[in-house]
Amino acid sequence: MTDNTSLQRTLITTSRFLADFSHPEPHLALANHRALLHLWGQLPPNRRCRLLLVASWAARDTAAVRGTFHEDRFAHELIDATRKWAVTNQDGSLDQFCNGIHPAFYACTWLTSEVNNELSLLVFLFLAVLLSAGDSGGDL
Length: 140
What we know:
Blueprint (H helix, E strand, L loop, with lengths): L2 H17 L6 H6 L2 H9 L2 H14 L11 H19 L5 H6 L3 H9 L5 H17 L7
Helix pairs in contact: 1-4, 1-8, 4-7, 4-8, 5-7, 5-8
């Protein structure tokens, strides 16, 4: 099993959990749990970066309204950058996307620095919420 495969399973599990969570802003409610933020912070930055890349790849075809929260804006910027990469690299795969150097990679690298730990978790959870609203079992 590749690293991306295990991260896809993590993303699918998270999005399914959030789909069953009866809160109007489930990513905000979940992010308020200090234990989850601690666990997220225990992941090395490159692993958090990879999770964000996998999530933005999976969410690249979602249609969501751009919100006013920071995590909404960052998530949509990641989705836009991922869409642009996918258009430019029409035969590109998730592995090529995750291993490439492009604007989404730079954004994820910045987001996963220690000072942005909470924001990066919120962005990941927001992307998972987008997937929970649609078909999260599709073309990951």
